[in-house]
Amino acid sequence: MTYEKFNKNIVFKLINKDKNVELLETVPYKEYLDLAVVFYIAHTNDDDSLKCKVITNELMTSWGVDVDALMGLALENTPRLLGLKIRGILSTIASYTDNEELQSVAEEEDNDLPLYVATNNIAMHGAAVLIYRDLLKAFAARKKSDVYIIPCSVHELIMIPSVECPNIDPVEIKNLIFYVNRNELKEEDFLSDNLYFYNVHNDEVTIVQ
After folding, report:
1. Do 75 and 94 belong together in one domain?
2. Of the residues 64, 80, 96, which one is the last residue of a structural domain?
């Protein structure tokens, strides 16, 4: 498995740092908030399904590269290979049905419910769009607002422009995140119990305390 053959297919995903201590002893990673950015090789099978191979410390060493090199490649490759999808939450829910009328109504209703689901084009490990270059900056500029970010799972995020939800209660949102993670989410899909906040003025994401 040569570096030259696969370096165009190196992408990243986000996982919870504390929940994956054993894994992180064996793979290269970068810390991000309470998360870890890990790397894998992605390529499609004949049926267009995605096949992934995690990059281990051993494999990285055999390639003669470091974690910063992997990060640089993944920042370029992940958006190119996996893309980005942002849509209203009602449209996202309706997309799981075959009801075109429901989907049409959902698109109209999304205008009154400023919750935006962000993922990649295959909705697999899509929470990694959080660290796409300038994604949050562009979204915040379009909305002219700071942004709350709910880490729904390793597969998707919900972005909430604060200007469109001026009465949002971060404590209630954090309680909801905790409840869903314990009662609705599969353990392997868990990303974080925290609520994040993107400040448009300093271009920074922080954990809401």
Report:
1. no
2. 80
**Among the listed ranges 15-24, 62-71, 92-101, which one has the minimum average pLDDT value?**
92-101
Same domain, 105 and 129: yes
Q: Do both 165 and 184 map to the same domain? A: yes
Domain carrying residue 98: 85-207
Q: Is 2 exposed, middle or buried (0-12, 13-18, 19+ CB in 10 A)?
A: exposed
Question: How confident is the model at residue 69, as a pLDDT?
Answer: 97
Q: Are 203 and 101 in a shared domain?
A: yes
- Average pLDDT in the chain: 88
- Domain-terminating residue out of 80, 95, 117: 80
In this predicted model, what pLDDT tens digit does every residue of 39-54 receive, in sequence order?
A: 999 976 666 567 889 9
**pLDDT above 50 for 57:** yes
Q: Indicate if the pLDDT at residue 93 is higher than 80.
A: no
Pair 96, 188 in one domain: yes
What pTM did the predictor assign? 0.86
